[in-house]
Every structure is written in C-alpha cells, then in structure tokens.
Write a structure and sequence with these properties.
With about 375 residues, the protein is an alpha/beta fold. It has eleven helices and twelve strands. The chain has two domains: about 110 residues, Aspartate Aminotransferase, domain 1, CATH 3.90.1150; about 260 residues, Type I PLP-dependent aspartate aminotransferase-like (Major domain) (Aspartate Aminotransferase, domain 2), CATH 3.40.640.10. The longest helix is centred in the C-terminal third of the chain and has 21 residues. The relative contact order is 0.17. The chain binds pyridoxal-5'-phosphate.
C-alpha cells in the first residue's frame, strides 16, 4: 500500500476531494510539464521536427506498459472517448439484423455512436439492465453473458460502471464474445490507471480511455488501443502526421498513400499538442511509478471503513466482489433524501458526485483517513438528523 501522496498535489487543505471519477486533480509535476509546454512556444525556433513525435511516442510507450500492450504502435492518441469509439465504429462490420450489446446507463460517449450505427445498418441495440434486489452485480454480469449470442456483432461496455462502480468480468465477456465472433470494445475511462486490466486475458478489440480521470492527465487527451481487427481500417480524418514517412518534413508533399504503422492512423490531427502531450506523459509516468495494483490496494483499504459504516447505517453498497475500491455508489436508506445528503456533503466540503440514485465516491492516493472520517461523519449525521 502507498502512503498518502497528497504532497505531490496542490489540493486545498479544507477540501475532501473524493471525486477522481469526475476529474483528477493534476499533480505538481503534470502542471509543470504543461507550463513548460506553454513557455516553449515563446520561441518557436526551439520546437524541432522531432518534438512533433517524441512525447506522443513516449505516451504510447507508457500506456502500453501500464496496460500490458506488447506493441506501443497499437496505441492511438485521441482527444476523447467519443472520438476513439467513433473510429472503432467506422471500421466494424455490422450486418442488418445483428446486435450491439450495451449496458444500462452506460456513459453516453460509448452509447450515441452505437445508436447511430445501429440505425444506419438496421442493427438492433440490446441494453442489459441490472436485476432488482440483492446480488445486483452478480446478476448483472450473468445477464451480460446471456445477452451475447450468434446475432451479436459488437459488445461495447466499460470494465467498471461509471455511475455506481459495478465491476464487469471482462475476461468472461471476452471469451463469450470471441466464441460468437463479435468485437469487444471497452471504455476503460473509469478503471484503467486505478484498477488492474488483465490485457492478456481480455484481449479486447479496442480499449479507449479518457486521460483526465484515472490516468491523471489534462482534459482533451486520451489513449486508445486498437487490435488487429483495425489494422487496415479507415480513420476519421486524414492528418499529414498519420502517414508513412511524415517525419521527413521536406517530403510532405510527396503525398503518401500508406498510413504510418499500427493504430497511429487513428491519431487525432495535431496530436503533437506541445502543452497537453507532455502533461499526459508526466501523468502516466506518475501513475506507473505508483503501480496500478498498489493504487487499487490503497484506495480499497481507504474506502473499507466507509463501506462498512455505510452498511451498518442502512445505506446500500454493492458487494465487495462486484465493487471497485476506487469508485463505488452509496444509496441512501429508505426515508433519507439524497438531496439532503448532497447538501450536507457540500456544506462540509466533501466532494463526491451524485449519479442516478446514489452518491459516487472515488478516492485516490492523495486521500487520507481525514477524508474518509469526514464522509463517515456526514453519513452518520444525515441518518441521525444531526445536520
Ligand atoms: C465511462 C466514461 N467514459 C467517457 C467519459 C468521457 O467521455 P468523452 O471523453 O467522450 O468526453 C466519461 C466521463 O465522465 C466516463 O465516465
């Protein structure tokens, strides 16, 4: 387990920030990388042709190492999850009458593209709901597997549900998906960086992650792994740098019909963002220096007393086997108004999110026992009417 990393950040002293699933704070090192990037353009003569490539390549390498991707060229630099998902959707076969399987209340950037695709190809969307009552996570996982059959063309889902932290057994989903020949597209935004992703077992066709949450980077950055299914695909745009030999600036108008190797064809235009790319690189290095297993063990340990006390007080929290340590929902007991809880948390400077009928708690390694205690006291006081 990791000791508190709070000194690496500049969070206000009076704030209990338990909301990394909303947006991570940036660490000092990430902030400095961004400032350095801004300063660099004071004198553009200092920006060399190799600068257009180096940080991006290093980001691919860091992300590949973080997740266990053997070839960093399978990593594309994307500005958002919707962009990475759209590139995947553009290159998947979806025959009329086939099915696209999604989860109930999945994040919209991994939904709208599939709505459009299903409409265009006359395919059917199947949205898998959780069962009511106890065993919700187990039942939901079972329902996902049951929804995948020979009619399924695509399964597009997260590893950890963004609203309540339900964990999906992606190895089992992947095995089922492979059995029926469907493509598996994973949105790793709310898991990768804080929750282990067993790449060797899952082997998804694509894994898309926004950079500004558990990868600890700036907004408008992201990374996407694309497997062999996408090797000969068509990107969303035709940027000069994604073509073979683009590092020879003098030869850029010797127009090139080939793309650069691997998934780099799916990079966003102007991917060499001289401010954001160094920030994302510094962030990934920081996450790797902590280690994903250590991050998850640390936050699971931190959140354990909250879960225990919340349950004793009558709040609803998912079973441990289907709940992530870094992101989990707390549902209020009968008779306790969610808005009341929200107001108390706000007043006490405890930052969490309200998603659906639950508050979403998302700790990271900058949190400590004081943050957890503040949350427990608030949960207790709301139940006792002691606010
Ligand atoms: C699961 C998930 N995916 C994606 C995103 C962000 O999507 P985009 O990068 O398209 O804005 C979020 C933001 O909350 C999210 O929770």
């Amino acid at each position: 387990m990791l000791p508190s990393q709070r000194s690496l950040f500049t969070l206000p002293d009076d704030l209990h920030y338990l909301n990394c699933a909303y947006m991570s704070p940036i660490a000092r090192s990430v902030e400095e990388a961004g400032i350095e990037g801004i300063r660099r353009k004071r004198n553009p003569a200092l920006v060399t042709p190799s600068d257009f490539f180096e940080d991006g390549e290093a980001v691919r390498g860091e992300f590949a190492a973080l997740v266990g991707i053997a070839d960093p060229r399978r990593v594309a630099l994307v500005p958002s999850v919707s962009y990475g998902i759209a590139a995947a959707a553009r290159n998947l076969e979806v025959p009329p009458g086939s099915r696209i399987v999604l989860l109930h209340e999945q994040f919209p950037s991994n939904v709208y593209t599939w709505h459009r695709l299903a409409g265009e190809r006359r395919a059917e969307l199947v949205t898998v709901r959780p069962p009511a009552g106890t065993g919700r996570g187990e039942g939901w996982n079972r329902a996902v597997l049951e929804a995948i059959d020979s009619r399924t063309a695509i399964v597009a889902l997260p590893h950890v549900h963004w609203a309540d932290g339900t964990v999906f057994d992606l190895a089992a989903v992947a095995a089922r998906t492979r059995d029926v020949g469907a493509a598996l597209i994973v949105d790793g935004t709310q898991s990768v960086g804080a929750f282990p992703f067993p790449m060797d077992e899952i082997r998804p066709d694509a894994l898309v992650c926004a950079g500004y949450k558990w990868l600890m980077g700036p907004y408008s950055t992201g990374v996407a792994f694309y497997g062999e299914r996408f090797d000969h695909g068509v990107p969303l745009e035709e940027n000069w740098i994604a073509r073979l030999g683009s590092e020879r600036f003098a030869g850029l108008v010797d127009y090139q019909s080939e793309y650069a190797p691997g998934a780099t064809r799916y990079d966003v235009g102007e991917r060499s963002n001289f401010i954001l790319m160094p920030m994302l690189l510094a962030a990934l290095r920081l996450v790797r220096s902590w280690g994903v297993d250590e991050i998850q063990a640390t936050v699971r340990h931190l959140s354990a007393p909250v879960v225990e006390r919340a349950r004793e007080l009558g709040y609803g929290v998912e079973e441990a086997t289907r709940r992530a340590g870094h992101l989990f929902g707390i549902r209020t007991p009968k008779g306790i108004d969610l808005d009341r809880l929200r107001t108390v948390l706000e007043k006490r400077r405890i930052s969490v999110s309200v998603r659906g009928d639950a508050i979403r708690v998302a700790p990271h390694v900058y949190n400590g026992a004081d943050d957890v205690d503040a949350l427990i006291r608030a949960l207790e006081d709301v139940v006792r009417g002691n606010t």
